[in-house]
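Forwarding these from the shared drive since the link keeps breaking.
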Amino acid sequence: MAISLSLVLLVGIILVIMIRNGRVKWGPALVAILFGFLLASSNVAPDIQKFLDSAAEALADINP
Protein backbone atom coordinates (compact mmCIF):
# COMPACT_ATOMS: atom_id res chain seq x y z
CA MET A 1 0.00 0.00 0.00
CA ALA A 2 2.81 2.43 0.79
CA ILE A 3 4.34 1.90 -2.63
CA SER A 4 1.00 2.49 -4.35
CA LEU A 5 0.42 5.73 -2.48
CA SER A 6 3.91 7.04 -3.17
CA LEU A 7 3.63 6.02 -6.83
CA VAL A 8 0.29 7.82 -7.13
CA LEU A 9 1.82 10.95 -5.60
CA LEU A 10 4.85 10.77 -7.89
CA VAL A 11 2.77 10.34 -11.04
CA GLY A 12 0.42 13.09 -9.87
CA ILE A 13 3.29 15.50 -9.32
CA ILE A 14 4.74 14.66 -12.74
CA LEU A 15 1.33 15.25 -14.34
CA VAL A 16 0.95 18.64 -12.63
CA ILE A 17 4.44 19.67 -13.75
CA MET A 18 3.71 18.58 -17.32
CA ILE A 19 0.44 20.56 -17.34
CA ARG A 20 2.12 23.67 -15.93
CA ASN A 21 4.96 23.48 -18.47
CA GLY A 22 2.47 23.16 -21.32
CA ARG A 23 3.60 19.68 -22.38
CA VAL A 24 0.14 18.28 -21.68
CA LYS A 25 -3.05 20.28 -22.08
CA TRP A 26 -5.91 20.07 -19.59
CA GLY A 27 -8.15 17.99 -21.88
CA PRO A 28 -5.74 15.07 -22.42
CA ALA A 29 -4.72 15.24 -18.75
CA LEU A 30 -8.36 14.89 -17.70
CA VAL A 31 -8.78 11.93 -20.06
CA ALA A 32 -5.64 10.32 -18.58
CA ILE A 33 -6.93 10.82 -15.05
CA LEU A 34 -10.34 9.37 -15.89
CA PHE A 35 -8.71 6.43 -17.68
CA GLY A 36 -6.60 5.68 -14.61
CA PHE A 37 -9.64 5.93 -12.37
CA LEU A 38 -11.64 3.55 -14.55
CA LEU A 39 -8.69 1.18 -14.97
CA ALA A 40 -8.31 0.97 -11.19
CA SER A 41 -11.87 -0.31 -10.87
CA SER A 42 -11.57 -2.84 -13.70
CA ASN A 43 -10.67 -6.53 -13.61
CA VAL A 44 -7.14 -5.70 -14.78
CA ALA A 45 -6.28 -3.72 -11.62
CA PRO A 46 -5.03 -6.72 -9.56
CA ASP A 47 -2.69 -7.78 -12.38
CA ILE A 48 -1.30 -4.25 -12.66
CA GLN A 49 -0.82 -4.14 -8.89
CA LYS A 50 1.02 -7.47 -8.93
CA PHE A 51 3.29 -6.19 -11.71
CA LEU A 52 4.06 -2.97 -9.81
CA ASP A 53 4.72 -4.93 -6.60
CA SER A 54 7.11 -7.32 -8.35
CA ALA A 55 8.87 -4.44 -10.12
CA ALA A 56 9.33 -2.63 -6.80
CA GLU A 57 10.61 -5.83 -5.20
CA ALA A 58 13.07 -6.36 -8.06
CA LEU A 59 14.35 -2.79 -7.67
CA ALA A 60 14.73 -3.30 -3.93
CA ASP A 61 16.78 -6.46 -4.50
CA ILE A 62 19.36 -4.69 -6.66
CA ASN A 63 22.63 -4.33 -4.76
CA PRO A 64 24.77 -1.29 -5.64
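-- next protein --
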Amino acid sequence: MEFHELKAFVAHHDNYEIRVIGHAGSRFYQVELEDIEGQRHMLTRRGKPVLFRALDDVYVELKGAGIHRAYLVQQVPHDEVIGREAHYQDPLTSRMPLVF
Protein backbone atom coordinates (compact mmCIF):
# COMPACT_ATOMS: atom_id res chain seq x y z
CA MET A 1 0.00 0.00 0.00
CA GLU A 2 1.53 3.27 -1.12
CA PHE A 3 1.56 6.23 1.27
CA HIS A 4 -1.13 8.14 -0.66
CA GLU A 5 -3.32 5.01 -0.59
CA LEU A 6 -2.80 4.71 3.17
CA LYS A 7 -3.82 8.33 3.65
CA ALA A 8 -6.99 7.83 1.56
CA PHE A 9 -7.83 4.57 3.37
CA VAL A 10 -7.51 6.20 6.80
CA ALA A 11 -9.68 9.12 5.70
CA HIS A 12 -12.55 6.81 4.67
CA HIS A 13 -12.31 3.95 7.18
CA ASP A 14 -12.19 3.78 10.94
CA ASN A 15 -11.88 0.06 11.63
CA TYR A 16 -8.26 -0.94 10.98
CA GLU A 17 -5.08 -1.65 12.89
CA ILE A 18 -1.65 -0.23 12.22
CA ARG A 19 1.38 -2.30 13.26
CA VAL A 20 4.96 -1.10 13.45
CA ILE A 21 6.99 -4.27 13.04
CA GLY A 22 10.51 -4.70 14.34
CA HIS A 23 12.49 -7.86 13.75
CA ALA A 24 14.91 -9.28 16.30
CA GLY A 25 18.47 -8.51 15.30
CA SER A 26 17.44 -5.68 12.98
CA ARG A 27 17.35 -1.93 13.54
CA PHE A 28 14.70 -1.33 10.92
CA TYR A 29 10.93 -1.03 11.23
CA GLN A 30 8.15 -1.73 8.74
CA VAL A 31 4.54 -0.52 8.86
CA GLU A 32 1.60 -2.82 8.21
CA LEU A 33 -2.12 -2.06 8.04
CA GLU A 34 -4.67 -4.78 8.74
CA ASP A 35 -8.18 -3.97 7.54
CA ILE A 36 -11.50 -5.26 8.90
CA GLU A 37 -11.41 -8.22 6.49
CA GLY A 38 -8.07 -9.38 7.88
CA GLN A 39 -6.10 -8.34 4.81
CA ARG A 40 -2.59 -7.12 5.60
CA HIS A 41 -0.98 -4.33 3.60
CA MET A 42 2.65 -3.29 3.98
CA LEU A 43 3.51 0.38 3.52
CA THR A 44 5.39 0.71 0.23
CA ARG A 45 7.05 3.40 -1.82
CA ARG A 46 7.16 2.84 -5.59
CA GLY A 47 6.17 -0.77 -5.02
CA LYS A 48 8.95 -1.61 -2.53
CA PRO A 49 8.50 -2.03 1.24
CA VAL A 50 9.45 1.05 3.25
CA LEU A 51 12.05 0.53 5.97
CA PHE A 52 12.39 3.05 8.77
CA ARG A 53 15.59 3.46 10.81
CA ALA A 54 13.91 4.88 13.93
CA LEU A 55 10.50 5.03 15.58
CA ASP A 56 10.58 8.82 15.26
CA ASP A 57 10.63 8.42 11.48
CA VAL A 58 7.62 6.11 11.70
CA TYR A 59 5.74 8.62 13.88
CA VAL A 60 6.32 11.46 11.40
CA GLU A 61 5.16 9.35 8.46
CA LEU A 62 2.03 8.06 10.21
CA LYS A 63 1.10 11.48 11.59
CA GLY A 64 1.26 12.75 8.02
CA ALA A 65 -1.39 10.18 7.11
CA GLY A 66 -3.61 11.22 10.04
CA ILE A 67 -2.77 8.21 12.23
CA HIS A 68 -2.05 8.73 15.93
CA ARG A 69 -2.20 5.15 17.30
CA ALA A 70 -0.41 1.96 16.37
CA TYR A 71 0.99 -1.21 17.90
CA LEU A 72 4.69 -1.96 18.12
CA VAL A 73 5.22 -5.64 17.32
CA GLN A 74 8.60 -7.25 17.97
CA GLN A 75 8.97 -10.40 15.93
CA VAL A 76 11.30 -12.91 17.52
CA PRO A 77 12.18 -16.07 15.60
CA HIS A 78 12.03 -18.18 18.79
CA ASP A 79 8.43 -19.31 18.21
CA GLU A 80 9.13 -20.33 14.64
CA VAL A 81 12.35 -22.14 15.56
CA ILE A 82 10.66 -24.37 18.12
CA GLY A 83 7.70 -25.04 15.82
CA ARG A 84 5.11 -23.03 17.73
CA GLU A 85 2.63 -20.81 15.93
CA ALA A 86 3.47 -17.13 16.43
CA HIS A 87 0.55 -15.06 17.80
CA TYR A 88 1.57 -11.47 17.09
CA GLN A 89 -2.03 -10.27 17.02
CA ASP A 90 -2.74 -11.33 20.62
CA PRO A 91 -3.11 -8.14 22.64
CA LEU A 92 -0.83 -8.87 25.58
CA THR A 93 1.75 -11.30 24.25
CA SER A 94 4.02 -9.47 21.86
CA ARG A 95 2.73 -6.01 21.03
CA MET A 96 2.80 -2.65 22.75
CA PRO A 97 0.43 0.26 22.06
CA LEU A 98 1.97 3.44 20.68
CA VAL A 99 0.30 6.84 20.85
CA PHE A 100 1.91 9.81 19.09
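Residues 3-12 form the longest helix (10 residues). The first strand starts at residue 16 and ends at 23.

- D.
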